[in-house]
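Session log. Operator J.P. requested a structure for one protein chain; no other inputs attached. Running the standard single-chain path with token output.
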Amino acid sequence: MESLNLLTFCCGRTIRNTFLCSCEIYESLDMARANRRQLLRAGLTGFTGLTLPGLYRARAEATAKAGNTETAIILIWLRGGQSHLDTFDMKPLAPSEFRGAFSPIDTNVPGMQITELYPRLSQCADRYSLLRSVAHDAGGHPAGSLRVLGGDPAAADKTEPTYPDWMSIASYLRHNPTQQLPNYVAINPVDRYDSFRIAGPAYLGPSYEPFSVTGDPDAPDFSVPNIGLRDESEKRRLNERTELRRNIDRMRRDIDQTGLMQALDSFDAQALRLLSSPEAAKAFDLSQEADGVRERYGRNRWGQQCLMARRLVEAGVDIVATEFDGPLCGRVANWDDHAVNHHVFDANAHRAPFFDQAVSALIEDIYDRGLNKRVMVVVTGEFGRTPRISNVASSGGGVASAAKGTVQPGRDHWPRANTMLFSGGGIRTGQIIGATDARGEDPISRRVTPYDFLMTIFHHLGFDPVQLALQNFAGRRNPIFSKGDPIPELTRTS
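Structure written below.
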């Protein structure tokens, strides 16, 4: 399956958009009559599809700087919302209409129990902490996602984000023009829920979109195109294309004497560095890993997404976001376990082995490689699931769902309680923060909001909350910076 990237080769096409290639420029424009704007658009589009150079140029305009550029975060996003009662906040003494089908098991941390479905995670609980008391009031998937990822205060769903997500803000603040790799990479991007966009840079502009990797990293033919040229014919085509671009540049300079064209060269140089960098190619290349390491993570999409995430933060990428969805989730390809979609218990049992192996391997690897002071791993979705089990007819048969019309158990949206997992980041691990009531309906201690979660993320990345509140992001203030506080139990201890 082809992966989407920010660069295309001559006569190539991206999945999402179609751009002019360099060899078409002379056919598509009457160069003698083209005005400055046409020439500018033609030159950049012909070479890079208005992607990396534009990204680097926009980022160079950012004036805010991070306080601690050594830290990094890996986000594992569970689109649709994981059931807290069936995983990390079980209620074995609750009535049968609440407690679910699974039993809790002890972990290697005294007093901490999680679902029997996660035996591997039970043995590395000393390397993560569970925040069991996250609550908000945005009950739809788009609104809940926008709240957790970007602090949007709206409780109603909207088609596009009004505020940038935390990943885009961090990318904006962490811009480093000398960095070989992008500072924000999305592996199976966190971006949409059906027709709704649940994340994005919003008013920061498209330059702060992530470098996106799509497809199945475990597929035999998987590759990340345009990162590190390995083929001589590709290098030759790039050289030819670069020379054509230089010729167009000289023509444009005759028209534009403002100095903009010379400045653009430096941004294109950064794009070329990524395109031709062997270091970048190596960071994305999972074949560099021993077979045993790949097996440890799981030879499936989620496992290899996590392995790539570890390789990228180890290589210097600041932000890596990866979404767990698709066939490994069950029939509807996400964690939205309404009874019409999934048999909630069959769905959790189906996806559990893949989740348990991938997340536990990532956590252990982060610690074993000494990355745990620098890299924080966060696992969450937009909300939890209803404590009370519903029984409704299935809308269709398939993996983890009975035949259409069969009544089966499910859990619906529940923003009033959710559990998040945190590992690494120099925090004190092996702890449980907060608690919900006997039925898992509402926090009864240490209630926190998505705003607190987001400020905890920024704190780890070295952004001072007061300075953030004073930053002028395209003339707008983000509510994150006035409503949240870092969660002390999840801040660095060393």
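Operator note: The chain is about 35% helix and 15% strand.
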